[in-house]
Amino acid sequence: MAQTTGPVLSTTAPDQAHFYAKLDGPRSFRLLKFKEGVFIGKDPVALSFMLKQHDIDDCPPYLAVSYVLWGRPYCELDANRDADEPIVFDWYIKINGGNFLILGNIWSALTHARLHGNGKYIWLDVCCINQSNLAEREAQVLLMGSVYENGAEVVGFLRPLHPDLDSFYWLLMDVI
Question: Which residues form the Heterokaryon incompatibility domain (predicted)?
Answer without folding.
Answer: 62-159
